[in-house]
Amino acid sequence: MSKVTVFITDGTEESECIIAVDLLRRAGIDTELVSCSGSREILSSHKIRITADKTFEEASFDDSDMLFIPGGKAGVANLSSHKGLIELLKRQAADGKYIAAVCAGPSIPGMSGLLKGKKATCFPGWEDKLIGAEYTGEGVTADGKLLTGRGLGYSIDLALKMIEVLSGKDTAFQIKRKIQYPDKL
């Protein structure tokens, strides 16, 4: 079974985070919510308290097939200053494993030098942080083991793409049907 580790901290955009966790778990993918704040409880960007499964210090990442970074301006600022997370992202990329991020989140692998030669998207205004990447402006961009989403409005699409690459198109389609997600708006 695949495993996804989702990182949160104070200021994380809660919907971008929870949508991914919800849909991944519906798909039967082992999904662990890990706090990078030193405490399992965080206060999200819209002042909602979220309790993580583990803190960064408690978690083990060797079996993570995908690491996911949600957005939120303050959350991304906090995550980008977490040295352990940055080293983990570099190791994940070196090991040829998936990294996914949404909104301002792609700026973290971008500023860590992990997007060179890749196509990526992000929240408008954060393009300069995608160092070395070709900005697509798409809602969701997949390039090899890198999955990026433009913002909250594309969080379901990104989560479905995450499911697709880990569990196949059929599983992603079944989740899409179960949540009544339309083919076209």
What does this structure look like?
It is a single chain. The protein is α/β, with parallel strands linked by helices and 185 residues long. Helices cover 33% and strands 22% of the residues. The chain is built from 6 helices and 11 strands. It has a 7-stranded mixed beta sheet, with helices on both faces. A two-stranded antiparallel ribbon has the order 3-4. A two-stranded parallel sheet has the order 8-9. The termini are far apart.
* N→C terminal distance: 32 Å
User: Given the structure, what is the number of helices?
Assistant: 6
Structural class per helix/strand content? alpha/beta
Number of strands: 11
Mean pLDDT: 97
Shape: globular
Question: Features of this protein?
Answer:
11 strands, 185 residues, two-stranded antiparallel sheet, single chain, 22% strand, alpha/beta, 7-stranded mixed beta sheet, Rossmann fold, 33% helix, 6 helices
Layout: helices, strands, pairs:
Layout: E1 3-8, H1 14-26, E2 30-35, E3 41-43, E4 49-51, E5 54-55, E6 66-69, H2 73-80, H3 83-94, E7 98-102, H4 107-111, E8 119-120, E9 134-135, E10 140-143, E11 146-149, H5 155-167, H6 169-178
Parallel strand pairs: 1-2, 1-6, 2-5, 6-7, 7-11, 8-9
Antiparallel strand pairs: 3-4, 10-11
Helix pairs in contact: 1-5, 5-6
